[in-house]
Structure formats: structure tokens, C-alpha cells
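Protocol step 4 of 6: structure prediction from sequence.
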Amino acid sequence: MAPSIDVRPCTADELGEGLTPIFHYFGRTPTEEGLRSLAPVLAPERLHAAFENGRAVGGAGAFTFTLTVPGGRAPAAGVTTVGVLPTHRRRGILRAMMRAQLDDVHERGEPVAYLWASEATIYGRFGYGVASLGGEMEIRRERGGFVDGVELAGETRLVSHEEALELVPPVYERVAEETPGMFARTRAWWETRTLNDPEWRRAGRGEMVRAVLEVEGEVEGYALYRLAPAFELGSSTGATVAIEALATTPEATAGIWRFLLDVDWMERVQASLLPIDHPLLLLLAEPRRARFTLGDALWVRLVDVKKALAARSFNEGKDVVLELTDAFCSWNAGRWLVSPSGVKRTRKRADIALDVSALASVYLGGFTFGELARAGRARELTNGGLEVGDKLFYTDRAPWCPEIF
């Protein structure tokens, strides 16, 4: 890195400057409106920027989150707005920002950092590992029928922004508290992020529509969506674009998706950021018609392995000893004994050897030690060690986050 580059947290007056590098890649510059929406959720001191002669040439931010992990919740850094101007590539600036950011996360006592990777090759060298897969689908309405016997619940109605701000968050929280990968949304987040609907977010589609599903007077589900009307030879070729649809019961889940699949005038329904175990795949009579495609989703970095593992629960069973390497955060390296009752350093013989990025893939329950070993990302050191580890770490719910932050 050139000696004239200074990596440090931004001040309140430098928030816009620190965001300029990442905005470059969206073809925009930070506006006053955009900064006003970010300020309540992104503290300036959590945006590390690389300055050259007073001008930001790189930036890396972090939201302050409470992350759901299997069996609990943990403080976490939601890494965001990472970018270096193309004029300053290959100078070590990204590495310096990652160093400053992860040191800061560690000092704050946040044991986990996680993100959505715009380019998957960037973050592995800093100890991040792919922790979940996500899907997207597009299904024509006439192929959106459910299997026989599906029970639907409730009545759906459209609500205003103000009503949604009161009715929707409790549903989200009930789902989030039991779904690894989701984070607790503050009111400021709902106001400035989830329910905020600036023109640039619409991408040529309609304004955000908010629907809630009520069962016996209680809101049990909701859908945020847009309509993208289009016509060809007088017939509709438009789409209902689901932004987010959540519900608290199987019946409410079926009900809110039945609503989305039945919106008139639209030819098809599109949805992205779906979990790989989404109930819709078992509700549809013709699941292949959904054209469900997969890609990597969340990437996790265990910043403090002991605290991160202690924050989640483990199944009853034998202990497992992990031989962990961590080149970027050396304080994590060594042998860790993981048991249903806790986590501690040990000198016992290791059962599994792996890198911290591989352990991150297992942490939320998205992958198994066995899968890592078959990919050459973990080594079994004692007979049966992989099986013991997988039983200990097993969770029956795929990690998921319904929004890119």
C-alpha cells in the first residue's frame, strides 16, 4: 500500500466521502437524501475509509447487528459498502481496510462479521467462508397451483406505509428469532431501509405494495412486492415481483404465497433471496416450474471463535476437537474443544483440522464437516470425527437472510 494512504474511521462530516468509492460502482454519487437514510443505521465511526490527500479512495462499513445463530443470538457486524476506486487497485488498500475493520469488530466484542459478497473471490483470504445458499425463482401463474390438501389461513389486505410500520415488524421478529442468518431490525432500519421506497430502488417497476395476512384479527404474515406491468399484442406479460414475504405458521405461509401467485393481470411471479428449504418448493404441485436456481448467499467471518461458538447451541453427543488455522486473525488459531456444555482451548488430540473460513461455513448450519471434507476443505484426524462434529453442529433450519445489506 502506498505510504500516502491513511485508513481510519470516518467522522460525521465524512460519511458521504467515505461512501463515494462504493457508490462509484452503482453509477451514482451519495446524495443528501441517501445520506439521511443511511445516517440512522450506519454510524460514521463504523465506516473505515482509505484517504489519499483528504479524498476517500476506498471504504468499508459495518452495520451494528444482532444476528440469529442456531439456538441463540450474537452481536455481529453486518459488513457493507466495501469498495476501492478502480484508480487505486492492487495497492493493498482493501487488505488494510479489512485489517482495520476486523480489529475494530474484535475490540467491540462482536464475535461474528458477515456480508453479501458482490464478488465471491474477494473475502476468502480474509477468513470469510460461504455460510448459506440462496435461491431465486420465476413461475407462470397458471403453473402456480398447490398440491392437494394445502390448508390456507387468513384474509389478506393492502396497508399503507404507516400501517405496515406497525403491523409488519412483529411478524418479521418472530421468524428472525428462530432463523439463523437473520438479524433483528430496529425501527430505524424499517423506516430507512426495509419500507423505504425511493425511486432508484424500483428499477423501473412499480412502487412498493404492502400486504398483511390476518388470522382471527392477528397479523400472521406479510408480503412486500412490486408490480412490473408489461403487455405484448394486447396481453399481459407483466410480473409480480416479491421483495419479501414472511409468515409465522405453515398455513399463513401458504396463504401469503397464494395471494402473491394470484395477483390479477400479471403473467408470472418473480422472487429472489429465498432460502433453500423454502416451503414453497413443497407447496407447489409443479416445483420444477418455479425454475428455482441457487447461488451463494451469506458469507461469515468468525472474529472471535470462542465467543462465536459459545453464542450458539449444540446438540447432545460427544465432544469434538477442532484444529483451527487463521492467518488473518491469529488469536483464533489453535485447538478448540467443542461440547454441548461449552467451548474452550485444549491440548487434546484434534478430531478435525480446518481453516477458520471452513468453520464459518458450518457455523450457521448451512454446510457440514462431511461436505467440507469431501471438498478438501477439512481433514478428519480421528476415525469418526466428522460424524461427531456433524451431529454436534446439526440444525434443521437452513440459514437465511431475506435482504442484502
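Step 5 (inspection) to follow. The mean pLDDT is 96.
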